[in-house]
Design brief:
The protein is mainly alpha-helical. Helices cover 50% and strands 5% of the residues. Among the domains are: 106 residues; 133 residues, Intergrase catalytic core (hpI Integrase, Chain A). The strands form 2 sheets. It has a 3-stranded antiparallel β-sheet with strand order 1-2-3, with no helix packed on it. It is globular and about 75 Å long. The termini are far apart.
C-alpha cells in the first residue's frame, strides 16, 4: 500500500498566475470574452427592451403587430451581418452604411417589397433607433429625402362580381362544418362590409334576422377610438345567413352541445371557443388554391364598397357609414374604387340629351377662306 506522502501532489502542480491561486473557473471580471454589459445580439436586445416599454402605451393587438415587424427587421439585419461581418447591428452605433444596406435589401432582395411596406419598416426601425438615441435616419432624410420611399395611394384591391361568384362556387363544394363556415364568410363579408375580426368574434345575439341587421360589438379600436355600430345585411346575403344558422345547429348537436354563444363557435371536447385569425386565413388559402384567384379576407370589405358604389355612386356617404369610417375621404381613398370606364359612361349619359348650341354667325367667313373643294 502506498504511503500518503507518495499520493500527495507535488507543490509544483499549484499554478500561480496573475489571477491568483484559485482553482477552477475564474471570476466574471477576470474572464475573457464579452465584458459586463456587452450583448451578443444588441439589436434584438434593444428591440425586446423597446417592446417592453411600449406595453404601457399601446393595446395588446398593436403591440403584437409591432413585435412582428421589429423582429422581422432584426432577422433581416442579422442576415446582412452574416453576409458581411463588418456590418454593424448595434443600434447605438448604426450609421448610414447600415441603413442604406437595409434599404437595398428591401428593394433588391429575394422578395422585393412595395414602397409603402418599405416606408413602414423604416418608420419602425427609426422608432427603435431613436429609443437608443440614434437619429441617423432623420439626418439621412434631411440630406437625401429622395432616398426613402414615400406613402402613395395604392390601387384599391377588390373582387369583381365574376371572381366573387367563382369563390362562392368553390366554397359550395366543401362539405362539413368547414364548408359551412366558408359559404357563410364568402357571402356575409361582401354582404355587410364588416372587417374580418368583426365577424370572427361576433356572438349569435348580434344577428337580427327580423330586421336583418348585425351589431358590431368588436370593432377596430374598441374601447379607444372605435365605436360599436349597427350594419345592415344586404338582401343577396340573407339566404346564406339562414342556411348557416341551420348548419350551425347541426354542428352543435353533432358535438353534443345544445347551444353556443359565438356566432361561429369552435367546439373541442364540449368546450366552446373561437377560431383564430390564422384558421380563417387557412380557409381563404384553400379557396385561393381552388379558384386560382389571389385575394385576402379584407378584400371582401372593399368589394362590398366598390360594387355598391358602382351600382349607385351617390351612395358613397351611406357606404362610409356602413363601414364605420369617420369620414367619407377614408372610404374614397382605401375602399370604394370608381372605375374610369364607369365614370366616363355616366358622363356621356349626362350629356347625351344635351344639344350643343350653334352660333348664328360663323366666326370664319366662307367667302374669304375657300376650301378649294366643290
Amino acid at each position: 500500500m502506498k504511503s500518503s506522502a507518495s499520493t500527495k501532489r507535488p507543490e509544483t502542480c499549484d499554478r500561480t498566475t496573475s489571477r491568483g491561486t484559485h482553482r477552477g473557473r475564474p471570476k466574471a471580471d477576470q474572464r475573457g470574452g464579452h465584458r459586463k454589459g456587452a450583448m451578443r445580439y444588441p439589436l434584438r436586445s434593444a428591440a425586446l427592451k423597446y417592446l417592453t416599454n411600449r406595453k404601457l402605451h399601446v393595446k395588446t393587438t398593436t403591440l403584437a403587430n409591432e413585435r412582428r415587424m421589429l423582429l422581422h427587421i432584426v432577422v433581416v439585419m442579422e442576415g446582412l451581418k452574416a453576409k458581411e461581418p463588418e456590418f454593424i447591428t448595434n443600434p447605438w452605433k448604426m450609421g448610414r452604411k447600415e441603413i442604406r444596406g437595409f434599404l437595398d435589401e428591401l428593394n433588391e432582395g429575394d422578395r422585393p417589397l412595395e414602397g409603402e411596406t418599405i416606408e413602414k419598416q423604416i418608420r419602425y426601425l427609426d422608432c427603435l433607433l431613436k429609443s437608443c438615441g440614434n437619429r441617423v435616419i432623420d439626418v439621412m432624410k434631411s440630406d437625401s429625402p429622395n432616398l426613402f420611399p414615400k406613402r402613395r395611394n395604392k390601387p384599391i384591391r377588390h373582387l369583381s362580381e365574376q371572381q366573387l361568384e367563382m369563390i362562392q362556387d368553390a366554397a359550395n363544394q366543401i362539405k362539413g362544418w368547414k364548408g359551412a363556415i366558408m359559404r357563410f364568410m364568402t357571402t356575409f363579408y361582401p354582404g355587410t362590409g364588416v372587417r374580418p375580426s368583426e365577424l370572427r368574434l361576433a356572438r349569435l345575439e348580434d344577428v337580427d334576422t327580423d330586421n336583418w341587421t348585425f351589431r358590431v360589438n368588436y370593432p377596430k379600436g374598441v374601447g379607444c377610438y372605435g365605436d360599436r355600430r349597427l350594419v345592415f345585411i344586404m338582401p343577396f346575403a340573407r339566404k346564406a345567413v339562414l342556411t348557416f344558422l341551420k348548419e350551425r345547429q347541426v354542428y352543435l348537436q353533432s358535438e353534443g352541445v345544445n347551444s353556443a354563444h359565438h356566432l361561429i363557435p369552435r367546439i373541442n371536447r364540449g368546450k366552446e371557443s373561437i377560431y383564430s385569425a390564422n384558421y380563417f386565413r387557412c380557409l381563404k388559402d384553400e379557396l385561393r388554391k381552388a379558384t386560382g384567384i389571389v385575394f385576402q379576407i379584407k378584400d371582401f370589405r372593399s368589394t362590398f364598397a366598390s360594387l355598391t358604389v358602382k351600382r349607385n355612386p351617390t351612395l358613397m356617404v351611406d357606404v362610409s357609414k356602413q363601414l364605420g369610417h369617420s369620414s367619407i375621404e377614408v372610404t374614397q381613398r382605401y375602399y370604394a374604387d370608381i372605375e374610369a370606364a364607369d365614370a366616363g359612361r355616366r358622363l356621356c349619359e349626362a350629356w347625351q340629351d344635351e344639344k350643343p348650341k350653334s352660333s348664328r354667325r360663323s366666326s370664319i367667313s366662307n367667302k374669304e377662306y375657300m376650301s378649294g373643294y366643290a
